[in-house]
Amino acid sequence: MIPQQVLDAIKTLKPAPIIKESAMEVGDIRPIQDFDGGDTRLALILDIDNFFDYAIVTLIHPYVRYATEHDLVIGGDTVSMPYDVVVQCDIRASVWKKQIGRLVGHLPAASVDELMKAKINLDTVSSSCRHGSKLTGPLDVRWNFKVLEGRELKKISQDCTIALIENKIDWQVDDLELMTAILRSEHNYKEMLLCFYDLAQMHGENVRISLDTWSKLEDLGLLDENRWKDSGFDVERVEKVIYGLYFKSISTQHKEQNKPSSVRSVNTPEIHITLEKLLQEASARAAR
Amino acid sequence: MTAEELIEEYEKSKIGEKIYSLVLELCSLVARKYPKDVYNNRSAWGQESFEELSQEVVLKRFIEEGQIHYIFGSPRNLDQIRALITRQIKITLAARREITPVDRLITRVKAHAKSGGLESVIKSKKHIFRANGSGADAVPLNDRQIFECVDLLRSIPVIYTRLDTSRETMIYSPPNLLKALNRIFGHVGAVSEGDLREILKNLLTPWERTILEVDTGEYVKAVDPTAEPQIKEVIRQEARSFVGRLSDEEKVVLVLKSQNISDDSIAETIGVSRPTVAKIKGTVQEKVKSQFLKEIEVDYLDDAVEALIDEIVNQTGSLKI
């Protein structure tokens, strides 16, 4: 049974501010979780990549006494939270947006910009901000704590980080949109093939088309070398582009279906891409 | 009890019977591993003291510090909730432990004042400490100033003991305590007893072993738990024998370097030149690697280094640190 003095104190407990959920933005404080449904941690969003659907985050904890000189202690009022937080500026990583949960607090974006710099001017964040005390060496309990925090974030962020480094991000082209674009010239094979060729050419390394859609494209004769030749196309060139995309799509699905159960693949969320987005990416790629 | 039931209770009434009984259950599991002399005012652990500790956790950590919102404000599973509450209990216990060494330091500061080493005045029923003849007034320090003072004291050697043991330590030798106070006076002019306590508490944070380690699920070492006590005992014996083969200077340098204290400060402390410190450091580090750590398994390297430093401090009460 809860003692009366505790019951009285509970009545005085400051409630958590009610924060309305909104689109994710830099400065948000949100929970992050790994794909296996493991532990949830709070993180500050430092940057968002809407194209690859990931965010760069830094880990947060509430144990202000254990802040080091690399961390920033921010008063709860500054971030609209019911307790002070320690932003671990030295522990950052990328996570998929799908791993990020609902909004629990927010640090103004200007302050986040400062955070990203090597040396922060504390007064620009808030007068309630400060760094922690210096780590005194490997025997300082916070040393090992930092190592464990790093491991924790590594576990949560490993899928996204590996996918980004090894370029394992797969965009699934919106099937309906793709077929609509091609079928716009349904009665003109040459136009239709040209449209598909252009789309296939701009695929880059990361675009995949579903097997169902490939069957439909085959039914339309868009994979038939003889028809390419009859329509006056350079068969070798068309083959390289279209079959390049075809084999990538097939091998991705084959690998997924046949991987041994003991092999842990990198978890990547299914990222759909519209033709407009694909076009933007192709232009950006060309500009680079 | 499921995580969903606990979260539902938090959303409805913040802290209800289910959350409170979980805190009580965890207090009884965690606290009984802590020495009663240090953490329970020398009384045997029992239902009454577990209840007292639960109240302290709920009042100080959950309500005053708002940590209940951290524990339940994000989606959690039961293991994680238990681990986070356990951490709050450990922090509460550590705060009990800090009282003794900080109290003793404050008593020594007051004794210094009585013997004329510094000035102590009472203003608005508060003790104010300042350098002799400075006339400085103490204004309440904000968090940032407290931490600036803590950082100023970091380069002064402490006679360290882990706070999870029942051994006591004086923390500062008499000359170093005076040096620490003068650095504080140099920075903020004068300091109240309350702020001095806060500075000293934060200064001891690095030695609060066990608080930041979480028992349940998180961060479990891949070692056989039943073999652990024997392995640690062997490490302690090895450390004892190895320390016996070191010179006094090597021991001092090893302890002070473990605190990240600069060669300059060490040279000043033991009265030799900086290059000599560098030479001793090189020799002793090589000995540690080749004669002590070489045979230790990777998982136990941290324990071995801790055992080594503990052993030096144990054996060398008379060392000039």
Give the helix/strand layout.
The complex is a heterodimer of chains A (288) and B (321).
Chain A: H1 4-12, E1 28-33, E2 40-49, E3 54-61, E4 71-74, E5 85-96, E6 105-106, H2 109-116, H3 122-125, E7 130-131, H4 141-165, E8 171-173, H5 175-183, H6 189-201, E9 207-208, H7 211-219, H8 225-230, H9 235-258, E10 271-273, H10 275-287
Parallel strand pairs in A: 8-9, 8-10
Antiparallel strand pairs in A: 1-2, 1-6, 2-3, 3-5, 4-5, 4-7
Chain B: H1 3-13, H2 17-31, H3 36-39, H4 47-64, H5 67-72, H6 78-114, E1 119-123, E2 126-130, H7 143-153, H8 174-188, E3 190-192, H9 193-204, H10 228-244, H11 248-258, H12 263-270, H13 274-292, H14 301-315
Antiparallel strand pairs in B: 1-2, 2-3
Describe it for me?
- Chain A has 288 residues and is of the alpha+beta class.
- Helices cover 42% and strands 18% of the residues of chain A.
- Chain A has a seven-stranded antiparallel β-sheet. Chain A has a three-stranded parallel β-sheet with strand order 9-8-10.
- In chain A, a hairpin with a 4-residue loop joins strand 2 (40-49) and strand 3 (54-61).
- The mean pLDDT of chain A is 81.
- Chain B is mainly alpha-helical and 321 residues long.
- Chain B has three domains: 3-96, no CATH class; 101-203, no CATH class; 210-316, no CATH class.
- In chain B, helix 2 (17-31) packs across helix 6, helix 6 (78-114) crosses helix 9 (193-204) and helix 10 (228-244) crosses helix 14.
- Chain B is globular.
